[in-house]
Amino acid sequence: QKEVEQNSGPLSVPEGAIASLNCTYSDRVSQSFFWYRQYSGKSPELIMSIYSNGDKEDGRFTAQLNKASQYVSLLIRDSQPSDSATYLCAVVYNFNKFYFGSGTKLNVKP
Amino acid sequence: DGGITQSPKYLFRKEGQNVTLSCEQNLNHDAMYWYRQDPGQGLRLIYYSQIVNDFQKGDIAEGYSVSREKKESFPLTVTSAQKNPTAFYLCASRGQVEETQYFGPGTRLLVL
User: Fold this and answer.
1) Is residue B3 within 8 angstroms of chain A, CB to CB?
2) Which of A32, A43, A101 is nearest residue B103 as measured by Cβ atoms?
3) DSSP class of A83
């Protein structure tokens, strides 16, 4: 069983602050990594993908990957109340199978 | 309007009954997936299919069955052997080149 670990939270940040979400995974051969956002009662929606070590930026979101430490993170700059959701980390093995963490709940307070 | 549709949005199952959840996609994606999500937990893989007429068990396949007779459709049957079926069921698909999975809106299954 592949392990994908996330702190369940809730993580509370004030509006305008930086939210930092973390994820660790157990298998060194993992190839691809994704962050999804899930609002309560809704299905997950893709935020970002990252495949190589380093940072990848998309608007207010930055994904960071460190394969040596088996660690992937998501930074949300200028957090907004609309960012309040559960964030799921997903790790892909063998191109076909996705393993998801249990998610971190983020609360952005106005 | 491209995307993934799931029906029904809510489904009620009586004890001992088999029920089928529908998943359709018009994205021309080869791979399709079924996940189960329980409250406060991540997604767990039930079944997946990479091509028509072929599918593989995921981590929690017991009590479930699937078919893949058409590229666009991947229905999931929750059988009476699944003793704890209450959950949020999510269907996803993925294209041949990109790895990103896209999700349907989900079906919430409740037991009467």
Assistant:
1) no
2) A43
3) G
Name chain A contacts of B41, Cβ cutoff 8 Å: 102-103
Query: pLDDT > 70: what percent of chain A?
Result: 97
- The CA distance from B32 to B73, in Å, is 9
Instruction: Determine the Cα–Cα distance for residues B21 and A14; give it in Å rounded to an integer.
Output: 40
What local confidence, expressed as pLDDT, does residue A60 receive? Answer: 97
Please give the residue of chain A at the shortest CA–CA distance from B89.
A43
From the list B25, B26, B23, B29, the residue with the least C-alpha distance to B7 is B23
Q: Which residues of chain B have pLDDT under 70?
A: 1-2
Query: What would the two tokens of residue B27 be?
Result: 């994205």
Structure confidence by residue, pLDDT tens digits, A64-73? 999 999 999 9
The pair of structure tokens assigned to B108 is 């919430």
Alpha helix (H) residue ranges in B52-110: none
Question: B47 CA to chain A: closest CA distance, Å?
Answer: 10
**Whole-number Å distance between alpha carbons of A86 and A106:** 6
